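Quick illustration, no need to memorize.
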Amino acid sequence: MAKFDKKVFLALHLLLLFYSCSSVLSKLAAGHEFLSLGFLVCYGGMFMILVIYAVGWQQILKHLPLTVAFANKAVTLVWSMVFGALLFQESIKLNQLIGCALAVAGVILFVKEDAANDQ
């Protein structure tokens, strides 16, 4: 992370955590009858998260290379798995853990390589 501020990198990950909340609202909406109040509240919340995420993403891209920002998007897989287990009592399978570990390892390798190339 030679050329970008660690605060921006942290902001990216907080934004990605926030973005992954849209999938929680989407799953909650699926439990409500179509166009019921619960359905509309969940989908409205999901829409608002996506709007805020889109604006935040554009701000992040002003400070980070596009390749770094997109590589880090893989972290949403981890958050989705955590939310699924905590909020919906979904089991976490070994292949999911391996997949997330590979995605995170790929992000780490990519960021390190990108930083080494910038020096």
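The chain has one domain: 6-118.
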